[in-house]
Design goal:
Blueprint lengths: L1 H18 L16 E4 L3 E5 L1 E6 L1 E3 L5 E10 L2 E4 L7 E6 L3 E12 L10 E5 L3 E6 L88 E5 L3 E4 L6 E6 L5 E10 L2 E4 L7 E2 L7 E12 L8 E5 L3 E6 L3 E6 L6 E7 L2 E7 L4 E6 L2 E2 L6 E5 L6 E11 L2 E11 L1
Parallel strand pairs: 2-10, 12-19
Antiparallel strand pairs: 1-4, 3-7, 5-6, 5-8, 8-9, 8-10, 11-13, 13-16, 14-15, 14-17, 17-18, 17-19, 20-27, 21-22, 22-25, 23-24, 23-26, 26-27
Length: 401
């Protein structure tokens, strides 16, 4: 009975480790890359009716992109089920300003992605201003007739006769007048008016035209610093270049990501900003650009948020401590230039390595942990060695600061 239980345990261990070989390939977990937006309009002006918005994006790791558009109505995000492509089509029959944004997802199931196979970002808000179509009368048309036609007659015809002849006379002469003159007027003049004039439009009084609301326009970003990797204490400057389409005054405010929120950085209000690099880690920043236009009669400010900028600060000091869990297996730890090498001593048949319980691709008796590419923290490395049907393990704790 003991032999049966022992054999069952050994088989279970073998199945467990063989089934976990695809946990991770490489030194650290890898997610699907964030989609990169190449082009997206900030504002769109359209007449009542149909209009479109297009976003141009790419997948940095060769994944497949998908899209979903939303409209913001009274602060609520309304999903647009028919708009799941890079181009969104909408139709509005009322004037006003409408807001939209798009969620872009990069889906990558290749072997380079070892953790999250999908990563989603949101575009900035696109504002669409819809104007009223002009429906005023065209040409010289007058009520009740066409062209130069006068009420109650055609062409140059005068009331009560044909051609240029009028009753009670011969030739072109008319009673009480000469030539082509008609009673009570001159030339081609129509009753109650002169020339081709039309009666005033009672619906749009000339002395009270409708007011057109003009808002400050959204600023445009033409340059933004890219992601950077620096050593501890190395100086780096992030910068942005923007312009105001309506010649307003631009202002800037930089933000740092803490947790899931972006927090305002005091005094970082210029086009450039130098972050603190005294401690190792990965830090994320973005800038908000605001356009102020005092000359408009609507909203006097409009703003735009930049994309995120990541700054990786390499660890300046490395502390390594080793803790052996299983005394039947000996290991050694060495450090050189921020590289930590963990070696299993002794003769074994198979080797398995784990970082933070994620299986690595290494199958040798030595594993190298690169501390230059990680942020400050504590990392656990576990080594498992197999000899015959027996398994041995040891664990190393690496502190990066």
């Amino acid at each position: 009975m003991k032999k049966f239980i022992f054999s069952f345990v050994i088989i279970s261990f073998t199945v467990f480790f063989s089934c976990r070989t695809d946990w991770f390939e490489g030194g650290h977990p890898v997610d699907a890359a964030k989609p990169e937006i190449l082009q997206l309009p900030q504002t769109v002006t359209a007449d009542c009716g149909n209009y479109t918005i297009t976003v141009d994006a790419i997948s940095p790791d060769g994944g497949e992109l998908s899209y979903q558009w939303y409209e913001i109505v009274d602060g609520a995000e309304i999903l647009m089920p028919d708009d799941d492509e890079s181009t969104m089509a909408a139709s509005k029959n009322e004037t006003g300003t409408y807001e939209y944004f798009c969620e872009i997802t990069n889906h990558n199931e290749s072997r380079i992605v070892t953790r999250n196979i999908s990563t989603t970002i949101r575009t900035q808000i696109v504002r669409v201003t819809v104007n009223q179509v002009n429906n005023e009368n065209n040409g010289n048309e007058t009520p009740g007739g066409e062209g130069n036609e006068t009420p109650g007659g055609e062409g140059n015809e005068t009331p009560g006769g044909e051609g240029n002849e009028t009753p009670g006379g011969e030739g072109n002469e008319t009673p009480g007048g000469e030539g082509n003159e008609t009673p009570g007027g001159e030339g081609n003049e129509t009753p109650g008016g002169e020339g081709n004039e039309t009666p005033e439009n009672p619906q749009i009084p000339e002395d009270n035209p409708p007011e057109i609301i003009v808002n400050a326009e959204t600023p445009e970003i033409s340059f933004l610093s890219s992601a950077s990797v620096v050593d501890c204490g190395e100086e780096i400057t992030l910068s942005v270049t923007a312009s105001s389409p309506d010649n307003g005054t631009l202002s800037y405010q930089w933000y740092k990501k803490i947790g899931s929120e972006f927090v305002e950085i005091p005094a970082a209000t210029l086009t450039s900003f130098s972050p603190d690099t005294s401690a190792g880690g990965i830090f994320v920043f973005r800038v908000k650009v605001t356009n102020l236009n005092e000359s408009v009669n609507g909203n006097k400010t409009a703003e735009i948020w930049s994309n995120e900028i990541s700054v990786t600060v390499l660890a300046g000091q490395l502390t390594v401590s080793a803790q052996i869990i299983n005394q039947d297996m000996e290991i050694s730890v060495t450090t050189e230039d921020k590289l930590v090498t963990v070696t299993v001593n002794g003769e074994y048949e198979l080797y398995f390595w784990y970082v933070e319980n994620v299986k690595q691709s290494c199958t040798e008796n030595a594993f190298v942990f690169d501390a230059t590419s990680v942020k400050a923290g504590v990392y656990e490395i576990k080594a498992v060695a197999q000899k015959g049907i027996l398994f041995y393990s040891a664990q190393v704790s690496i502190k990066v600061q």
